[in-house]
Amino acid sequence: MAIRDILHYPDKRLRTVAEPVDVVDESIRSLVDDMFETMYAAPGIGLAATQVDVHKRIIVIDLSAEKNQPLCLINPEIRKSEGVEQTEEGCLSVPDIFETVERAERIEVKALDRNGEEFTLEADGLLAVCIQHEIDHLQGNLFVDYLSPLKQMRVKKKIQKARRQATII
Ligand code: GNR
Ligand code: NI
Known about the structure:
Blueprint: H1 26-41, E1 46-48, E2 58-61, E3 71-91, E4 94-112, E5 118-124, H2 125-138, H3 149-168
The chain binds ligand GNR and nickel (II) ion.
């Protein structure tokens, strides 16, 4: 197992569209293990393979306080979605930025688990938000893309400023 480096906005590699996984083999399971380790270390509640520069449709999530409810979705597809909700989101690839985003309130998602078995999951609340946020990563999209142009500009300036200060010290 290994902690992998997380790409940071505005890295262009975050815009790569991920390819479906065709066989869930040992190499995929090893990547999934690394993704959990990277997510727990960050710490975060979700991680998409895109964020560790692997462009395959794989996401990991754990919303539990004890970090003992790992959820792995390979080739996730949203089958149904209904309702609208607003949540304040953050992203490990956009550190220190928290903004409100509108998402579907309830979703039904179909995916493969780490053994390659198909399953269907109904989700609402933070789990639904997190799954939509991670699937966005797999398409090369980021939560900041939903913000107004003015807010996007402020996000860019804040990140540039943080980076300048990090280089000086
Ligand atoms: O750790 C994370 N927290 C979070 C909070 C609200 C909505 C979405 C998220 S996902 C984020 C981890 C991450 O960047 N996943 O891609
Ligand atoms: Ni994210």
